[in-house]
Amino acid sequence: xxxxxxxxxxxxxxxxQLLVYKRDNFAHIPFPDLWDFPGGGREGFETSEACVLRExxxxxxxxxxxxxxxxxxxxxxxxxxxxxxxxVAEGQQVEIDSIVFGSEGQCWQLMGIPEYMAxxxxxxxxxxxxxxxxxxxxxx
Length: 140
Fold this sequence. Notes:
This protein has four helices and seven strands. Helix content is 25%, strand content 29%. It has a single domain (7-134), classed as Nucleoside Triphosphate Pyrophosphohydrolase. Strands 1, 2, 3, 4, 5, 6 and 7 form a seven-stranded mixed beta sheet that branches.
């Protein structure tokens, strides 16, 4: 049976920093000009894991195996019209060194977790989801 969801996001954490990108500043997209996590919409009947890993590879050139996903939570999508999934993975230096930034967004950076949580241009719902992980028993 297929999971019902619209998309996925991933908090990719490397040395207590988040891999984030600044969204394009177009009025027709959700959260224009804000700092976002990798992720996006589901294609076809892919699983949530396949969706988030495909998006991470498309947006940053990082190919992770599913086994590197350390946290998964089903959440309402940003419009509250369906379900989405939030994942967490731990990054590695070799992956950061080989990032190839995709065609969406203005720029990327590694941002400290406290900085993201306090940043006025961070997407509020992602702050909440990141807190779920940080306060969970899954957080090493």
